[in-house]
Amino acid sequence: MSPRAESDRLRVLLVDDHDLFRTGLRNLLEEQGVQVVGEAAGGADALRIVREIAPDVVVMDLNMPGVSGVEATREITAIAPLTRVVVLTISDQDDDVMDAIIAGACGYLVKDSSIEDLMRGINAAAVGESLISPPIASKVLQRMRAVTLDQGAETIRAELSERELDVLRLIANGKDNSEIAEALHISPKTVKNHISNILMKLQIDNRIQAAVYAVRSGIV
Question: What is the pTM of this model?
Fold first, then answer.
């Protein structure tokens, strides 16, 4: 991967209570052309740094002393809506995943993910998209299918076009924009336009929430 120009480099804040992990992650990200603009060992420090420098993306652990990653994510979403949060944690527990998504996280990856997966997550978040580790996405969908609310399906069908419904179903099945474009034989730009329309019509913030909405409503 070629280094980004200084003005184009993503500005990333690392939040994790393990110093050695942050150092290793910083080195890996800087090798990928990312500008690590700060580090925090907990949620309170993360909030202070976000207020000061408003990074593009925060890579957030969940289980930390003091202000948790979920609490910090919720606050960051409120005080700096242009700063995106990608959760990078050891936990793959359903409750942690759902709490992070509801708090406003744009991505959820486990710590055994590759640096390539993390870069995909960071880059996706930076442009308003989302990425969840495939095993995590599968667990979320299974859990949401168990509590499906069929009465919402008709509401969604009334709001969205058939093509938008196709896109929403593919989002809910964990497909990224390029995979959706290939499946529907349309351009990635058209996919992005459909997703923007879906979020606007359903009055939700990101594609992860769209996936949850779709499964809860029985669309998938």
Answer: 0.69
